[in-house]
Amino acid sequence: MKKNILEISSFSNEKLKYISGLKEKKNREKSGTFFIEGFREIQRAKVSGKVKFEYLLICPACYLGENEEDLVSSIDAKTILVPKQIFEKISYRDRPDGLIATAELPDFSLSPNTKLSDDPILVIEGVEKPGNLGTILRTAEGAGFHKVFVADPRLDLFNPNVIRSSTGTIFTLDVFQSDIKELYPILQNAGYKTFAVTPEANSLYWDADLKGKVALVFGSEQYGLSEYTRSQSDHYISLPMKGVADSLNLAMSAGILMYEVLRQNR
Question: Residues 61, 62, 64, CA angle at the centre, nearest 5°?
């Protein structure tokens, strides 16, 4: 186990209040730090090299596996040991696994010098629900979409629900936050074909040629695609709906389309 571990047994401690407070957006914005919970999420944050850790909160009584001690020893952070009842109070989960970290907010902003390869790209515009975004990131990693652009989001990328539902893939993917009007010229100049996914499109996704340099573009859960995106995209495709519902959940739709791209490019 890591040396120089500080033991704290009272929730009234200012360090613990600070760590717990990072579950709220206003505190993340004020401090420039964020909250990562879970062995898998912390491990992936560490492996990515994108995260500078600050505190590591541990509770061996909550550990679920056998490799927690190795991970704790490998992370350069101020380590705090707390009893189970305190950890459960700070935890964001119903079944905590004994590890919470805080870290500096990484810079995910889009740069004009961002390099694009020939791999497929995913664009999510105006996403509102943290769980949807996290699930989309997890699916993108599985389907080989290594670059994900979150354009004009209506949420905080470092919401604990995004991190949890992404299982930490928010760190292992190349995730960029951008303005859609800044992003589209970059995609077009790089030779990408943009496919806007919208229920109003007459062309079904399985009839589209999704080979090569493809960018799938999805709109928000409530508002769909912006007028700019509707007017600037190269192609418009939809998923067939045979029942009363007129659309699928955003994360489900994105998953179907990403795996269709993978199928066509196999």
Answer: 115
